[in-house]
Amino acid sequence: MAGIKGRIMVSAAFFLLVPVCARGQLANPGFEKVRVVEEKEGFAEGLRKAGWKFEEPLVLPEGWVPNQGAFKNGEYRILSGENFSFSGKNSIYLKGHFMHSKHIDVTAGDDITVSFYVKDPRQKPAGATLYFYYRDEGKGNRFTGSSLFTVKTGPEWKKESGIIKIPEKSPGGQRVNAVILALFSDTGASFDEVEIIHKRTSSWLNYEDAFNEGKKKIDQGDYVAAIEDFRAALGLSKTTEERIGALGKIAESHLKAKEYMKAIETYSVILDTENPDDKARAGFLFKKAEAYSELKDYTGERDVLEKIVKDEKAEDSLRIVAAFRLADTYVKEKNPGKAVAALENVQRMKESTPLERVSAQFRIGEIHANGKDYGKARDAYERILSMEATTFVNRFDANRKIGDFYAREKDYEKARESYIRALNVDDVNPYSRVELLAVIASTYESEGKFEESLKVHEEIIASDSLFFRNKRNSFIRAGEMYRKEGNYEKERENYRRMAVWAETGVPDWASSQVAETRADMLRLTGDSYWAEGKKDQAISFYVPCLECGGATRISESIIKSIESKIGENVPATHMRKGRTLIFERSYDEAGKEFEKALSSGVITGRQKAVVRIEMGNIHLARNEYQKARDECIAVLRMQDAPSGEKAQAAFLAGEAFSIEQKYEDARKEYLRVLGIDGAGLAERAEAQRNIAETYRAQQEYSRAREEYRKILKMEGIDDSLKREIEQRILYIYN
Fold this sequence. Notes:
The protein is an alpha+beta fold. 59% of the residues lie in helices and 13% in strands. The protein starts with a helix and ends with a helix.
């Protein structure tokens, strides 16, 4: 029996190739997929209240439900086993209505053929019904009646079918837009292998169906078929409104199909013969102008737009939009004189508002600027500052643009005066403020006034702005200023501050941003030492930069720049590749790169320690906790491993123990960090926090509080960490 369902599926696939039919639209037609309905869903309770009998827990075929609202005191159950089903393992026994959850979109005249296998030893009637729905705009589908067919049953499985034609009007008096299938038996019957064939009507019976189908075709991008449907709707139209609707959609289809002349012709028919109302007329004129614009026929576009401007019946706002677009046609033709004249006409129109006049003035300034007539552009923006309805945003933008023109002319003093006026307007947003401060700093730099430029960058760095890129750029630019002054120590201190700021700043910053900033610190510090002639110190920073990979992947141009100075560092190359492969979760390949680094023969003690830690990370990602700890032990035993790498190894070992909930062993590793000579404050604070967290994980809250308090006693911890720890102590469970 199981092979029958396979043959039915092949048959359904064949019918899907027929354009006027759709077959196999029902999910789970043989009831093979089932789900247990949880009591909290309330469905079983609804059946009980309607008097239905069913086995508990309630098991339903996916996509099917009993309709307790259509039939009271019904009965339903799944019949499992080949002896109970026509094919496969499941069928259903039903007394009542059993409906499919998916609706099918239909139009008047469509045929719906429903077939199913059914049996009833008592040979009582059974059948199928279609619930009709109409589309209530904004509220979805609403029930509006039904239609059914009845078949005879027998003691053996028999395939039965029937056809229901979709009427123009439902029993409820509404057009039918969708149907849902339901099986039914008033006395009880078994059902299996349900199938639907939906045959589209060959000709539309009413305007609405043709029009709605055309809209679907537009959404699908099938403009040729959409036009056919809208032409059919036009032939079925009974009112001027319907004619205008169909013609408008035909024109829209041509426009979207890039058949611009056909769109223009159709819009002309609507405007010349159908007498649309004033609002609709303006809309069609704008669409017609758009078609001319696509053809780059700007004379034709202006002729249409001028009709809107001169039409006193059109809304004022539409006339102003048309006037602005008239100016745009001259801009497209590269005729700035006429474009400016058109915008000045907008300002003279009695319908234009003060805000629209300001907008026109900005456009005039942009036209002069694009034409490189910077004097006229500056004058245009100066005028904005005294215009009625100029907002603080307008004043900021106008002053900013005026300053840009002065800067272009290298009159940096006047440029800064304008920029400062911009900064002094009300409510400048923080992003615009720091961005403009950076521009002011660049004007000082252009004049060689490095001290003044530095002061502005320091103002950005000290600001409350949370914009990562702006502050990072100011750190870098400040470093460049220090180098130009020959103050290399101050430059490098600046880069160190940048790294600390990134690592201890706002926690919402992406880890990649923090890692990228650290890579910048390494590279720029190396550049500083190199510029000072201290090549050994430069190499000590360049090499860790070359090791960056994965989320901190550095560009090929930076790699080439560094290697042009110090040559290729083979271990660093393999480490960079390995880290990138870890980031891509290619652990086997990453391990091979790290092995190559270890066997290179020129690897330093620090690099060996870093490689071992990365190999430990690979083992940790694979849940190989002991192997991860073995790599850490190797680092801790190294005589030439720096204290920072030893601390990282202890942290990694502690994490491996913590994951396995071996908290006592984890604490020993974190205590090891506290005992490493040269471990920094951040590392010691992190180790102490982890010790507290292990006690918290064991629900030893009193001991966790005690360990947290040790962090507060550490000299030099920053205020943000202090506040965090105080909150943890305050809200820890008793």
